[in-house]
Specification:
This is histidine kinase. Residues 485-703 form the Histidine kinase domain. One of its GO terms (molecular function) is phosphorelay response regulator activity. By secondary structure, the chain is α+β, with helices and mostly antiparallel strands. Helices cover 76% and strands 6% of the residues. The strands form two sheets. It has a five-stranded mixed β-sheet with strand order 2-4-5-7-6. Strands 1-3 form a two-stranded antiparallel ribbon. Residues 1-7 and 10-31 have low confidence and may be disordered.
Length: 704
């Protein structure tokens, strides 16, 4: 089963790639191979081209990117880098070039040849103290010995790489070596140590938010839990890896997670759920064109279907997987395929076919067992050697620690003696200067206090000046606004009034003609009076604040007064003002202020309602303590922009004219809001362009 799983595990191959090229994996993620090729060609096509350090580094990085894609390109680029590095005496470039050449021979299975290049680069890296290159070569040597089955040597090389990274490189680099150590110990069968190293790697990767690394560690931890029989925890880890795969759109990671969850569900005899996960993995592997992965998925599907008694489908899928494994020469899975086919035919009572496949199963099983036996003997021997060496290292470390402790004690004694002598001399000098210091300190303290008092007075004066300046600015601003309104909004109706009166005098009108003109005169006077009232109330509120004198009063009464007051306007525009107030709408507020607020709101409704329109004034209880008054018209309405700027504090700005060109100061609604708010109420406006406007405000009820 172990051999069956290893080929499907995503990180058996991908982590190896990370080990060899730990330093530059981020570069591979951010730059495409094509863009790097174009950069190198541009550099080489320059006149009088001479290799530079950056050029050589790019050659080496590109070689690393080609490692799993096209090893021959890795070799050619490494040879070009080697030649250029020798030309300009760039030792770091030589180290990386030797490592890439060794990696090429490693992937070809030429392990001894690869090791000779690694050692060549290692000697240069040690002399140069090129820590990054040194750590990477130790990783490569660890991979070399790991693939040859020499686990003790592999662990030693990885530990040397880890030691360099802990002293000189980043934590993220350390996580890659910790991950590789976990893989070695997992193959070694030491699951506790494997879990320890994978957990350390995961913590670092989570700290740096390295999603690819986190997924790698999660899958490796899941595999350790799976081997230890902790199946629920393994499923949890694979689910986390699956979420990361979906987030990163990593199809290979998604496939591996689905497949391994299916394997665990098979073990737990949850055959229907297992079948679903194998089928999900198959869809992903078909998208990726991963033929070997498809073989594993089909075998898992077949095994689940066999347990669900779907014999025809099970045989079909197992036979398809068998063909793939025969092509790929994966003996352990050929063995398993024949065993499952034997069971299927046995369930169909086809003894001849069952026996045929069982014999093939035994034949392949014997070859797999021989390979496993050799591997186990090698693992036991390697483990013994590693444990022996680890014990020797611990003993050597203890002896070094004892020597260091003795040396430290001696140094401490000498240091304490020197410190005591220095302290004695310092104490004598301190006694001589203490009086001078006390006097100087007293003088400094006195001067400091005087300075702080002076600074406080200056800050207070500055604050007062700023306050006065702000007040003057606000008063001046209010004065300018008042002059603006007086100059523009009162000038026009007063001139109109003056013209009408002059016309009456000059033309010597009879009584009938005078009565016709007097209606217009009255309207003009009312408009001037209304504007002046608003203006004076607003100015008083701005300068002294709004003072309320609340009493109980009937909204019916003040509504009736305002309807009568606006009768010339409503009759002139043939607008109906409909009183739908509740009979007992008795409010407790400043009657004059609310009267003026209602007049302003009603005046606005008349101004923006077309001829023949209507205005409905209604009321209803708002909670237990308030009345809500509504003034709703079917006029021209407002846009969302106009509605949002309705209650700004600016006056004299852009105005909206009424349906017959009526003008206003812009004070009305602002003044109404101020009065209503000051009397404990709230005001809200609802409007839609072309459909009318509704103003609602609340006031305290006089009776609860």
């Amino acid at each position: 089963m172990t051999a069956f799983l290893n080929l499907k595990l995503f990180f058996s191959a991908s982590v190896t790639f990370t080990v060899v090229f730990a330093t530059h994996i981020l570069l591979a993620q951010s730059n495409s191979i094509q863009s790097q090729i174009e950069q190198l060609q541009a550099i080489e096509n320059q006149e009088n081209f001479i290799p530079t350090f950056d050029y050589i580094d790019q050659l080496n990085r590109l070689g690393e990117l080609y490692y799993n894609r096209n090893p021959d390109s890795t070799f050619l680029l490494a040879m070009k880098s080697l030649k250029a590095s020798e030309q300009i005496d760039y030792n770091k470039g030589l180290v990386d070039a030797y490592r890439n050449i060794g990696a090429y021979h490693n992937i070809k299975g030429e392990y001894n040849h690869a090791m000779s290049f690694f050692k060549e680069g290692l000697s240069i890296a040690e002399k140069e103290q090129y820590w990054l290159g040194l750590a990477n070569i130790y990783n490569s040597m660890g991979l070399n010995t790991y693939e040859r089955g020499d686990y003790t040597a592999a662990v030693n090389y990885y530990l040397q790489a880890l030691e360099i990274k802990e002293k000189h490189l980043s934590k993220l680099d350390q996580s890659k070596t910790l991950n590789n150590l976990g893989l070695v110990f997992m193959d070694f069968g030491d699951l506790d140590k494997a879990l320890k190293y994978h957990t350390r790697a995961l913590k670092i990767r989570e700290e740096f938010k390295d999603k690819t690394g986190i997924a790698s560690s999660r899958i490796n931890i899941a595999l350790v839990n799976k081997e230890k029989g902790q199946l629920d925890e393994a499923i949890n880890q694979f689910n986390v890896a699956l979420e990361l795969g979906i987030d990163m759109n990593n199809r290979q990671l998604i496939s591996v997670s689905y497949f391994n969850i299916g394997e665990i569900l098979l073990t737990k005899k949850s055959f229907k759920e297992a079948l679903e996960y194998f089928e999900k993995a198959l869809l992903v592997d078909k998208e990726r064109g991963d033929r070997v992965g498809i073989g594993f998925d089909l075998l898992g599907i077949g095994e689940a279907q066999l347990n669900l008694n779907s014999l025809r489908l099970a045989k079909k899928n197992i036979n398809e997987s068998l063909n793939i494994f025969v092509e790929s020469d994966i003996k352990s899975n050929i063995d398993k395929s024949h065993l499952l086919l034997s069971k299927a035919y046995e369930m169909e009572n086809n003894g001849m076919q069952a026996l045929h496949h069982f014999k093939l199963h035994k034949l392949y099983q014997d070859s797999v067992i021989n390979l496993e036996t050799e591997k186990q003997i090698q693992e036991i021997s390697s483990k013994y050697e590693f444990d022996k060496k680890e014990a020797e290292l611990r003993q050597s470390q203890k002896e070094k620690e004892l020597l260091n402790e003795k040396k430290m004690e001696r140094n401490i004694r000498n240091g304490v003696t020197v410190i005591l002598v220095i302290l004695l001399i310092a104490f004598l000098l301190a006694i001589r200067s203490v009086k001078t210091q006390i006097k100087a300190k007293a003088l400094v303290t006195r001067q400091k206090n005087e300075f702080e008092n002076l600074n406080k007075r200056l800050l207070q004066q500055k604050s007062e000046n700023e306050k006065i300046t702000n007040q003057l600015f606000q008063v001046n601003e209010t004065k300018d606004k008042l002059f603006s309104i007086v100059g523009h909004d009162l000038k026009s109706p007063i001139n109109s009034l003056k013209g009408l009166m002059q016309y009456v005098v000059d033309e010597k009108l009879n009584q009938e003609e005078f009565l016709m003109v007097s209606t217009q005169l009255r309207n003009e006077v009312e408009q001037v009076h209304f504007t002046l009232t608003n203006l004076l109330n607003w100015a008083k509120g701005q300068m002294r604040g709004i003072v309320t004198d609340p009493i109980a009063f009937s909204m019916h009464k003040i509504l009736k007064e305002n309807i009568n007051l606006n009768l010339p306007i409503s009759e002139g525009k043939k607008i109906k003002i409909i009183d739908q107030l509740e009979e007992n709408t008795i409010c407790f507020a400043d009657k004059d202020q609310i009267n003026l607020a209602l007049r302003n709101i009603l005046n606005n409704a008349l101004k923006f309602t077309h001829k023949g329109g209507s205005i409905i004034v209604s009321s209803k209880k708002y909670g237990q303590d308030f009345w809500e008054i509504s003034i709703k018209d079917n006029g021209i309405g407002m846009s969302e922009e106009a509605l949002s700027n309705l209650f700004t504090n600016e006056i004299g700005g852009k105005r909206q004219y009424g349906t017959e060109g009526e003008k206003g100061t812009g004070l009305g609604l602002q003044l109404s809001k101020d009065f209503i708010t000051k009397n404990g109420g709230e005001i809200k406006v609802y409007s839609e362009l072309g459909k009318g406007t509704e103003v609602r405000f609340t006031l305290p009820s006089a009776y609860f």
